[in-house]
Design a protein that fits this description.
Blueprint lengths: L11 H7 L5 H11 L14 H12 L10 H30 L5 H27 L1 H5 L1 H18 L2 H8 L10 H15 L4 H22 L4 H53 L7 H22 L3 H23 L1 H4 L11 H10 L37 H9 L9 H8 L3 H11 L2 H4 L4 H14 L8 H16 L9 H13 L9 H6 L3 H5 L5 H14 L12 H16 L6 H15 L7 H16 L7 H24 L15 H24 L2 H23 L6 E3 L2 E3 L6 H12 L11
Antiparallel strand pairs: 1-2
Helix pairs in contact: 4-5, 4-9, 5-7, 7-9, 7-10, 8-10, 9-11, 10-11, 12-13, 18-20, 21-22, 21-28, 22-26, 25-26, 26-28, 27-30, 30-31
């Protein structure tokens, strides 16, 4: 194998010396390479038998299956046999015409008929053997060479001057143009033998010897006429030999280059693997390795290019590639999102984004109180709100449920106040509405028990409660059913989406991932600080499903069960806001930069459905003010409860969790501007729904303007909800629930679906 060293490359003097020639690269490279080719200079065959065998396989065998004939060689055989058959048929036809005209004897006609029949029989038997037998295929040159020699002998003897002397018949001036016939046949044999210099040379030499000996021994022509024809044939065949030598050498040279590069690559890979203790490499390591290879190739190209402008561009490419390699090596493009210094984001919003929308790491500035006890679920208030009796008729309730997935501003609190339930009522209605229970043999008892258990497993948090799960389900279905995306959904997608949406926050303790990680909570320890709440929610969903009488997936096929589980897990995990920019960047790249999302591909469908749940999870930010402000108050109260716990432990209070110093309008304006709008813009671009654009994006912009206006008037400690002014945000959750009654009397058509 050729080793690439500095001596292989061009130095500056060599480039300068040969720069006047347009072929300066080829000249020096070819001169060096030819002296190192492992090819016999006389026979043009590789010295290595294995290399010869590989070369023949490359020419004659299919790239995917070495036992099959390659398409190119099949085409070559097709053209050769078409030519060869017509070739002999033409000779036979004119032989019959000459015989009928009295210029051919019976013996001459018999000679041509018998020879052509034998040649065609042998040729087609050889064709069948070549196509059927791999052994014959790899040695087909030997047999086609024999066919060529036998055909040449037939043509030379078949010359009327020679044949009449052999058969002792009268010679008549009606001979075939033997030289032209042989010349055409040699050209066709070159193509069939893949320009093999060795066989073309043998065939040409034997043809010349046979032509000269038979014509001098039997032809009735003069010696000078015979020598003249021989000279013409000699010149033509010598040219064929030279051309075949050049073509055969070039083909083998290209094959050797390809083989050498493959061996060099394999050797390099093997050396790196043998020198590395890590047998399974990460994607980052592979990318860095590829960058190094590309950089070496650019350096080599830079060393042989003569044009200064191209050399300068290559040099810049090296520097750019080095920067890319460093960024890949540090993993910043996957794990971190940089807030640029010149952006319009103020310092408080930067801190909030870094704290809540990026991965939790142990380099956090939050100081952990080493003496503090481990957080338990008892730290969170678990006040069970009273469930009122139904205040609405069945018909009115059915009318409200009918608007699930249809009215963007559907009020889930209406369902809760009317029935004392949320998830159970909405999910049961949807399963019955779309016949999912019948489709997957889910009994009403099983579905009731599953969704009731999911609802009960939600804790009594101000925000992350069962009503939030039901509201997210409605919002997700609105995206589905108010766009063309609906046509890409099947029933198992819909069933999995219902389960994922209703259970995406099940068991939520009312604190953030960062809080659990920093306090070494058992959930964080269990899930290794990685999307701890989201992993817990997934586990809770299937734990509930494993309880007696709750397995709504009991009768799913194996394929449907796997699809549903993958979809549920991926959708729930994507709601981790600490991975917000990573998830958004990936979806934006696929959706906008490449536009290659294919809903026929399951992984792409999972990506889209996960993005839908992610948007639905913060969908309240695009609802009408009466709903949006209520959900905002609830999430702020939950943040404040976490801040109260942190204050009681003498821990630094998380951003926007300090009820005494919170600037709610400012934080909400920044949240919508920096998080919600970029997310919903790309999501709406994907959905391509004018209705969703008008309903969601327009309302999102209005809500941002509303919070900015509130921030300007410095009402950071007073939040209005549907006309009600709340002076304190420290009330119990039971008081929060009572706000739903205020909303019932709000005179806002958009706040309540038509019933």
């Amino acid at each position: 194998m050729i080793q690439h060293t500095k001596s292989n490359r061009f130095d500056d003097q060599g480039i300068s010396k040969q720069s006047k020639s347009l072929t300066y690269i080829v000249l020096e490279h070819e001169e060096h390479e030819n002296s190192h080719l492992p090819i016999s200079p006389n026979l043009l065959t590789f010295r290595d038998k294995e290399l010869n065998s590989k070369y023949l396989k490359t020419i004659y065998c299919h790239s995917d299956d070495s036992l099959l004939v390659s398409p190119d060689f099949k085409n070559t055989l097709l053209f050769f046999y078409l030519f060869y058959t017509l070739y002999l048929v033409v000779i036979l036809t004119f032989s019959l015409l000459l015989h009928s005209d009295g210029k051919y004897s019976d013996q001459q006609l018999f000679y041509h008929i018998s020879c052509c029949a034998c040649l065609l029989t042998f040729a087609y038997m050889l064709l069948l053997s070549t196509l059927k037998s791999h052994w014959i295929l790899m040695r087909n040159r030997h047999y086609y060479f024999v066919l060529g020699i036998v055909t040449i002998i037939y043509l030379i003897i078949g010359d009327d001057r020679v044949l009449s002397e052999i058969l002792d018949t009268d010679y008549k001036e009606s001979r075939f143009p033997t030289i032209a016939i042989i010349s055409c046949f040699i050209v066709m044999m070159r193509n069939l033998l893949a320009e093999c210099f060795y066989y073309i040379t043998l065939l040409s030499i034997l043809s010349l010897i046979l032509f000269l000996s038979l014509n001098l021994g039997y032809s009735s022509l003069s010696v000078y006429s015979t020598l003249f024809e021989f000279s013409i044939l000699f010149v033509f065949l010598v040219l064929q030999i030279f051309e075949s030598q050049q073509t055969d050498f070039r083909t083998r040279q290209l094959f050797w280059r390809k083989t050498r590069e493959e061996k060099a690559f394999e050797k390099k890979e093997n050396e790196q693997e043998s020198n590395s203790k890590v047998k399974i490499k990460t994607e980052i390591e592979v990318l860095v390795h590829i960058c190094d290879d590309i950089k070496q190739d650019i350096k080599y190209a830079h060393s042989v290019i003569m044009f200064n402008d191209v050399k300068e561009r290559l040099k810049r490419a090296q520097y750019a590639l080095e920067r890319v390699k460093k960024r890949i090596g540090h993993g910043s493009f996957l794990m971190e999102v940089k807030i640029e210094a010149d952006s319009n984001i103020d310092e408080q919003d930067k801190a909030f984004i870094k704290e809540n929308f990026m991965e939790v790491t142990h380099e956090s500035t939050t100081v952990i109180n080493r003496g503090a006890r481990r957080t338990t679920m008892s730290d969170i208030d678990e006040k069970e709100p009273p469930f009122p009796f139904s205040n609405y008729g069945v018909a009115e309730l059915e009318g409200v449920l009918y608007s699930v997935g249809k009215n963007w501003n559907f009020d889930v609190w209406f369902i809760y106040d009317a029935t004392g339930h949320s998830i159970h009522i909405v999910a049961k209605y949807l399963l019955q509405k779309w016949g999912l229970g019948e489709s997957y043999s889910i009994s009403e008892e099983t579905s009731d028990k599953f969704f009731q258990t999911v609802e009960k497993t939600y804790q009594n948090n101000p925000y992350h409660n069962a009503c939030h799960g039901a509201d997210v389900l409605h919002t997700l279905l609105y995206f589905y059913f108010q766009s063309d995306f609906l046509k890409n959904l099947n029933t198992i997608d819909t069933l999995a989406s219902i389960v994922a949406a209703t259970g995406h926050d099940v068991g939520h303790p009312g604190v953030t991932n960062r809080f659990l990680v920093n306090n070494r909570h058992e959930i964080a320890l269990k899930y290794n600080d990685n999307s701890v709440l989201e992993n817990m929610h997934c586990s809770e969903i299937y734990s509930i499903m494993g309880k007696h009488g709750c397995n709504i997936f009991e009768h799913l096929s194996s394929d449907d069960w796997i699809k549903a589980r993958k979809l549920i897990i991926e959708m729930v995990l994507e709601t981790d806001m600490s991975r917000h920019f990573e998830i958004l960047g990936r979806f934006r790249t696929r959706c906008l930069n490449f536009s290659d999302l294919n809903m026929e591909v399951q992984d792409d469908k999972v990506l889209v459905l996960s993005m839908g749940l992610k948007c639905a999870d913060i969908g309240h930010s695009a609802k009408i003010p009466i709903l949006h402000e209520k959900w905002t108050r609830l999430v702020c109260e939950e943040f404040f409860k976490q801040g109260d716990v942190e204050r009681s432990r003498n821990q630094p209070i998380s951003m926007y969790c300090d009820r005494e110093n919170a600037d709610i309008p400012k934080s909400q304006a920044g949240f919508i501007k920096n998080i919600c709008i970029p997310l919903f813009e790309v999501w709406c671009q994907f959905l391509k729904s004018e209705l969703i654009n008008k309903t969601v994006l327009d309302q999102l912009t209005q809500n941002q303007a509303m919070w900015e206006e509130k921030s300007k008037t410095k009402h950071s400690s007073v939040v209005g909800v549907g006309g009600l002014v709340v002076q304190s945000l420290t009330k119990d959750f039971s008081e929060v629930i009572s706000l739903g009654k205020v909303m019932k009397s709000a005179d806002d058509v958009g706040a309540r679906p038509a019933v």
